[in-house]
Specification:
This protein is α/β, with parallel strands linked by helices. It is built from four helices and five strands, in the order ββαβαβαβα. The radius of gyration is 13 Å and the shape is globular. Keywords: Transferase.
Length: about 110
């Protein structure tokens, strides 16, 4: 995935806005407070929800658990006209760095 920029967790604020493409159960267990959630499987049908990101000066940062799904998603998003980047290490790295997280049901956030 070297063709796409890598954004380091340390370079983002706790409330940074980025796209989280993990499944609903993963999101519910723990997610970044500013993240936009669209599971990878729903992205083609819901890509219009990302329209506000088209005119930004910086790339749309995309994440999953550890990077595998992002590898398959970034080329597709680029074809749709988005300037995209990968959150290096995914949500595992975000969680490991002690960044702020929320859960759907309260309790401690997890990124299994």
């Amino acid at each position: 995935m070297s063709e796409f920029p890598q954004v380091q967790v340390a370079d983002l604020s706790d409330d940074a806005v980025f796209l989280d493409i993990r499944e609903q159960d993963e999101w519910d267990r723990g997610h970044a407070p500013g993240a936009v959630h669209i599971p990878m499987s729903e992205l083609p049908a819901r890509v219009d929800e990302l329209a506000p990101f088209l005119d930004r000066d910086e790339p749309l940062v995309v994440t999953c658990r550890s990077g595998g799904r992002v590898t398959r998603t970034l080329p597709w998003l680029e074809q749709q006209g988005y300037d995209v980047a990968n959150l290096d290490g995914g949500m595992r790295a975000w969680h490991a760095a002690g960044k702020e997280m929320e859960t759907a049901h309260g309790g401690e956030a997890q990124v299994p």
